C-alpha cells in the first residue's frame, strides 16, 4: 500500500506542475535528451504548429477536418509537454464527436491555453 501512496503523491505533484507551467520542461528535456539547442528548435516548431492547427480548427467547416486537426493538436501538445492544451484538445475532440460540432466555449478555452503556451515559449526563447 505504501507504494501506491507514493505514486499518488507523485501524481498530485505532477498535477501542480501542469497547473503552474504551460509546458512541462522536464518532459521536454527528456524528449530532447537534455540538448538545449534541440529543445529550443522543438519549441520554435511547436509554436508554428500550434498556430497553424488553431487557425485550421477555427476556419474549418468540415467535421472530419476539425477532428483531424484537434487530434493532431492533442498529439503534438502531449509530445512537447503542453499538457493543458493536450487535455483541452482531447475534450474538444470528444465534444465534437458527440455534438457534431465544436462549441464556442471549448474553442475559446483552447485559444486561451494556446496563447498562454505561445507566451511561455516566447519568454523561454527571449523573442
UniProtKB/TrEMBL annotation:
Classification via Gene3D superfamilies: HPT domain (1.20.120.160)
GO BP of this protein: phosphorelay signal transduction system
Residues in HPt domain copies: 41-118
Protein's name in the database: HPt domain-containing protein
Amino acid at each position: 500500500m505504501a507504494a501506491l501512496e507514493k505514486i499518488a503523491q507523485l501524481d498530485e505533484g505532477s498535477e501542480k506542475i501542469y497547473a503552474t507551467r504551460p509546458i512541462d520542461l522536464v518532459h521536454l528535456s527528456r524528449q530532447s535528451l537534455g540538448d538545449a539547442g534541440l529543445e529550443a528548435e522543438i519549441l520554435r516548431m511547436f509554436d508554428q504548429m500550434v498556430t497553424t492547427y488553431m487557425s485550421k480548427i477555427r476556419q474549418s467547416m468540415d467535421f472530419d477536418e476539425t477532428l483531424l486537426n484537434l487530434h493532431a493538436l492533442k498529439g503534438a501538445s502531449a509530445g512537447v509537454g503542453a499538457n493543458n492544451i493536450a487535455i483541452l484538445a482531447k475534450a474538444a475532440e470528444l465534444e465534437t464527436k458527440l455534438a457534431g460540432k465544436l462549441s464556442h466555449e471549448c474553442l475559446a478555452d483552447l485559444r486561451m491555453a494556446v496563447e498562454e503556451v505561445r507566451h511561455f515559449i516566447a519568454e523561454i526563447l527571449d523573442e
